[in-house]
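<given_protein>
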Amino acid sequence: MSSVSLILLMAISSATAGAGVATLVSTIGATERLFALAEAPDAVQMHVGPLETASLDSFVATHQDIIDDHQVQDALQLDNQDLRVQGTSDAARDGVMDLLLVTQSPRFDFLLGPDGTPTNVRDGEIAVPGYYADAYDLVRGDPVEISAHGDVRTFTVADIVHDAQMGPSLVNSKRFVVSEGDWNDLAERLPVEHIITFRLVDDAGDRFAEAYRQAGLPANGAAVDGSLLRLITALTDGIVAILTILVSIVLLAITMLCLRIMVLTALEQDARRIGVMRAIGFSHREVSSTLLLGYAVHSGLAVLVALLLVFPASALLRGGDVAPSVGRDDPGNLAMLLAVVVASVIPTALAAQLLRRVRRVSPLLALTRPGVSAPTRRRPRPLRWHLPIPVGVRLAVRGLTTRVTAAVLLIVMVGCAVALGALPQRVTQTVAAPDFVTTMGVGQSDLRAFLREGGDADAGAQLERSLHDDPDIDRFARTTSFRVALIADTRTEDVALEVGDMSAFPLSYARGDAPAVPGDIALSTLAAEEAGVDVGQSVEVDSGGASHRYRVTGVYHDITNGGRSGKTVELHGDQGVPLWQTFVIDLRDGVDQRSKASALALDHPAAAVTELDRFVHYTLGDTVERLKTAAMIAWVAAAVVMLLVFALRGRLEAARDESDLRLLRLLGWSRGELRTIALVRSVGVAGAGLLLGWIATESLGPGVLGATLSSFGGGATDLVAANGWSLITGPVVAAAAVVGGLIASAHSPALLNES
């Protein structure tokens, strides 16, 4: 039983490590492969409105030292309700996903087919992005309907495309590829948006951004760089992979602690045998090697079991591939096998280190003493028989207090396992909660409406009047975003600055407070770090060629706009052309959000209106589902590991205390009473471990989630209150430990005639 438990422990930790490493390596490799095949741009600038290509050509000609190539892709804006897939309108994603109809890029930024080559569609055909193919289960040959001002056209799906720039669900724009003829026909009915892309020389990103800003070129839209595109593409699988690797580290630590107990117990039990081997001439190295061979066999068998588990676990975690699969060898498989082997070898190395204690064994003492070391640190006090507490309970407590080190190790193992099972569940629940949008640079509200620049100039004012007169509206706030430059000591960084009242729908600020008066500014985490400022300091803001100094009042987390944004009450000087307008809306009690959003979108076609919950669902939904899978694997692994650890530990302890247990049987104790002692010990350790795990989850959770989000603008975030599965994960893991202890106590020593 001990051997089987140890093998399974090693196998589970090794398989989890292999699956996590394989997911991470495959994600990074797939992202790089996608960007190489697509020849992805290093800088992207969206622009709505008139565009003079001559100024761009002149800019590129004068900056050939930093720009390799550039191109302008014209895209047609399509409303979600004008797209029907599998007979279903895409109106549910109105205000969430911006649909763009494009032709294949001429020189770079290709949209790739399944074979890894740029997709090529004919008249009447369409290539759909993978996001929509997954959402609607699309395959080649399926029909897709597009309506342009009442003219309905049916296209046939020719390809499922991989888009390096707009593929991930976190990117709110999606490109559909149509033929040149179909695009020209639809261009007569649909508005045009420009996608300006650049290929840069190595390490020229900062110089390019500064030169583009100073040239005053078109910038009426979102701007991202290649590093951010790579990060967003790898984000979903990356979060799952990092979480799984953390799980494997905890499992490996538990396995090593359990192995330590097993090795030391075995040395204590085999002291006489070791003494005999030393007495007849075996060196301590020969004895250690003989004992180590057994643990090496355990590791070898664990590798075989782990290989059976790691492939299905890896398949569950990886999900859909972000890159074409043709003509490639997945480096994740090799990394997975290497991780499995390394994770299995580490416990063997620990066993080798512990077996060095054999050199301390004196043959004479080993033959005359019962063990290498005494089982307890101090002599237990005699029991006081007059106390009302049952004797079995007192014996159980004394067994824990006289072996403090072993008890503490077990409590720590249970605490780690409880945190291992509960923390992923809590992180997943936090990301899926509606309040999580406050970590995305967005205030909590019922509805949000966006108006991009380039449409009806009076659309914002009309929507504001409509909201003001609407009896269903409880309150609303209007803000306008501009592109400005933050001027630091050595560099200048472009940010999207939101101007308006920030008190009506406040964010959760990491430090400081919202801007309250003109001259105050709040910055996102990445913007503040790159500008080198913090709360209480000042920063210069360049708008329209004039610089003004603002006082930083707060720093907030933001995973939108590339993580670089700001908020202020009033923008001094020439504001320039706005990027977009945002309306944040709360409804009165009893008003249906979905119906009101549809009504506002119908009355104001220039605005993209959506419920905030729906926005989070369609952008973070894929990430949440993958996190749920990883959390379930972690929970099951933690419960199984605790069952095995306590079964193993209980059998080792029963073997070590066999003479004492037999003596109790001779004194009249029944088998049930002996099991009560083991049960009380297990319950005590599991209860203390459950408390420790809960404390660790609550204290470490915000940091774990923040570390994951920090690379793209997030930070430490409080976990939402536990509910549902999150409430039972910890108790289930602790209960598994108790069950393992009961299994170990099922066998009691035979009652022999030892009178």
